[in-house]
Design a protein that fits this description.
The chain is α/β, with parallel strands linked by helices. It has two domains: about 5-140 and about 325-365, Nucleotidyltransferase, domain 5 (2-Layer Sandwich); about 155-320, Nucleotidyltransferase, domain 5, CATH 3.30.420.40. It is about 40% helix and about 20% strand. It has helices at about 50-55, 65-85, 115-120, 130-135, 145-150, 195-205, 215-220, 225-240, 250-255, 265-280, 300-310, 325-340, 345-350, and strands spanning about 5-15, 20-30, 35-45, 95-105, 105-110, 125, 160-165, 165-175, 185-195, 285-290, 310-315, 360-365.
């Protein structure tokens, strides 16, 4: 294995549209043999840009000029975040995900203009890493399972990684094996709407952008009728075998129960339903590792732990994966794999029809 060392920046703006997460990752080696190590990460709010991106994601009519403006503004927000992240250091590669404003395979759009980023930093920028899989008949998601396998190649037990983002997705079948990293053993899928539900409940019922720490949910009680209704929706999403996106935000359930159920109880019910759906999706794992923004909601974490017995539920940090910066770290690893001409998607995960899987990523060279 070549011990070439690269410093790679990964950037992610999730479907919750709440900020930019950026991570600087030192990667030794190439391809699937690489050894990534996070150097540092930052999270920065999108500010006034968030409302425009949310309008686009909500499928509100916008002009072509407005889409172009959003793509440029998001690029410049990335430039500011990456400049702060690097703090005078250099990097060799930047990988950006962009903001998902529609995902309904085979259609998907992660809006961003990567050219200003490449121009500002003078390094290659890779983006649009879902398109190749979508073109081969895949769902284009989830794309992070291969990165979890790389990060957890020495983890001592068979683990599942649960990303509690706008939508919950899971990686299964990772950890140490006698055969080393075997991509055929890796599983993964989207499970259900997650922070989309919790944040919409918070905005509609609590009149807050989100439930800080899950405090309101912890103070509430589960409403049985609302719980059954949401569980039915989430279980359908989980069993559908497709990637989730536009139209899966369960806003109808929130509207149906908003006036009948007390705000704290609605928040508690949402956490309980998501916790059950998540635990069921990884019921065969020895260890469940939680990552993503939802880990800050203690009511959701508690609900997963209650539903996941006897599996051990831990934060991903305990296994060497940053629960806060897992996604930008994953984007950095995916970018390096694209640079090494290694496929990043797995047919058994995304349903892509090409064997071998297609090479992913579009490039802007400085």
């Amino acid at each position: 294995m070549s011990m070439e060392r690269r410093l790679v920046v990964g950037c992610m703006t999730g479907t919750s549209i709440d900020g930019i997460d950026a991570a600087l990752v030192a990667i030794e080696g190439r391809g699937l043999d690489q050894r990534p190590l996070i150097v540092r990460g930052i999270s920065r709010p999108l500010g006034s840009l968030a409302s425009g991106l949310r309008e686009a994601a909500d499928q509100r009519p916008l002009t072509a000029a407005r889409f172009s403006e959003l793509a440029h503004e998001l690029a410049m927000a990335h430039v500011r975040a990456i400049t702060e992240l690097l703090s005078g250091d250099r990097c060799d590669l930047i990988a950006v995900h962009g903001q998902t404003i529609v995902h309904a395979p085979p259609l998907s759009w992660q809006i961003i203009n990567p050219s200003p980023i490449a121009h500002h930093f003078g390094v290659p920028v890779v983006y649009d890493m879902r398109a190749a899989d979508l073109s081969s008949g895949g769902q284009g998601a989830p794309i992070t399972p291969i990165t979890d396998a790389i990060l957890l190649r020495e983890y001592p037990s068979r683990a599942a990684v649960v990303n509690l983002g706008g939508f919950c997705n899971v990686t299964t079948g990772v950890g140490r094996t006698e055969r080393g990293l075997d991509t055929a053993m890796i599983g993964g899928r989207d499970v259900c709407a997650c922070n989309h539900v919790l944040d919409t409940v918070s905005r509609a019922a609590l009149h807050q952008p989100y439930d800080e720490g899950g405090g309101h949910a912890l103070a509430g009680s589960v409403d049985p009728e609302a719980l059954d209704g949401l569980l039915a929706i989430l279980n359908e999403q989980s069993m559908s075998g497709r990637s989730l996106g536009t139209g899966d935000e369960v806003s109808g359930w929130i509207e149906a129960h908003l006036t009948r159920v007390k705000p704290n109880d609605l928040a508690a019910t949402a956490c309980a339903a998501i916790g059950r759906a998540v635990a069921e999706s990884v019921r065969d794992a020895e260890t469940i590792l939680l990552a993503g923004g939802g880990t800050r909601n203690m009511a959701l974490v508690k609900a997963i732990r209650l539903a996941a017995v006897p599996a051990g539920v831990r934060f991903a940090d305990e296994a060497g994966i940053s629960s806060t910066y897992r996604e930008p770290v994953a984007i950095a690893i995916l970018g390096s794999l694209c640079q090494d001409r290694v496929p990043i998607t797995l047919p058994q995960v995304t349903g892509g029809g090409s064997v071998p899987p297609p090479l992913s990523g579009c490039w802007v060279l400085p």
